[in-house]
Design brief:
11 strands, alpha+beta, six-stranded antiparallel sheet, single chain, elongated, Alpha-Beta Plaits, 382 residues, Arc Repressor Mutant, subunit A, Beta-Lactamase, five-stranded mixed sheet
Amino acid sequence: MEMESITCFQYRLRNLACDGDILELLKALNERCGGQWVYSVRQDYEVYPDTPELSEAFFYPEWWKRGPVKAAFPGIQEFSWEGGSSFHFIHSSMTLGGEVRHLLQIRGEETFTEEDHVLLDYACLLSWYTRDLPAASEGISAIMKQSYEGIRPAAVPDGVFPEDGYGIVLLERGDKGILKQQGYLGYRLHRSFRKSLRYCFLDETHLLLFVFTDNVMKVTEQLEGIIGIGDDDMIMGISGRYRASEMDQALGEARHAAEVGNLTDTDRRVFFHSELGIFRILEYPKPGSPVNRILEQMTDKLMEYPKEKRDALSDTMCCFVQNHFNYQKTADAMYAHVNTIRYRISLMENLWGCDLQREEDRLLFEVVSRLLPLWMKETGYE
């Protein structure tokens, strides 16, 4: 079968671009020229064919070796890199309204033909028509950032997010800069989950996700593999299941789980909101919450004592609650005389205006015993 002329092929590319079907456009370019074709906008990537997976080197320009520029195509750059085997790619970009869009052809040892350059240059110009990917990217980021701040989206566009799913917040607590690799991680997330997951890099330490799945544990394992989470590098907070229109609640729960987990358990990496116990109903460590104000008032009074004494009082309170308000068991656990325990507890009752004969004050004492050590650690009162 005779290959269609380049003019006819360009006309077909134009129709595909006008239809906004970027994947079909990449497929047509692959069938005509071979190689692997990539279209990128911000952190979003469309790749055809999808295999093999793009090399990590693709996302690090400092690894690239620049080739000579052809006089007829000043907007096209040719690069190569060494990584086990040699790869070459030609790259064209176009800036529209301050937004840079890239189109690339990647192949092995073969040299690029003049037709490759012509079609790449033309296809990049056609990217003006393909509005869906950048528009979706911008809309997804805006909605997820707003939801993370606790603001319910006014509207969620049809087809942009899964109908329902789990909110996930990844928080980097190490200094390895894992989430700085936004381009590479975004590509791998897109490649692994397709339309079942939407993501937003809030900054270089926070990654927000909304994912549809019937097995959230499997998703956490996949994410650990994609992102390369080490023992102490990152933590993951996971919400219950919500509709996309309730994303503020989903990401709020995930954020709360990650923040509480970061304070309470340095040995774990994954925290489900459903497993937080009393922390599910306490807005801690949210700044300005009633719980924070109570802790601040209690800590200020405790700070009137020398460090050794306030540590003894704090430890006694925690042990007293753990032993169900039993003086003798607390004394045995702390290797102290029971009268010493009675004195310390009485001191704290007077200090905080509590009466542990009252059920309400016992409940407050129990909650404070869980939160006060975290509060003192977080705020530097120690």
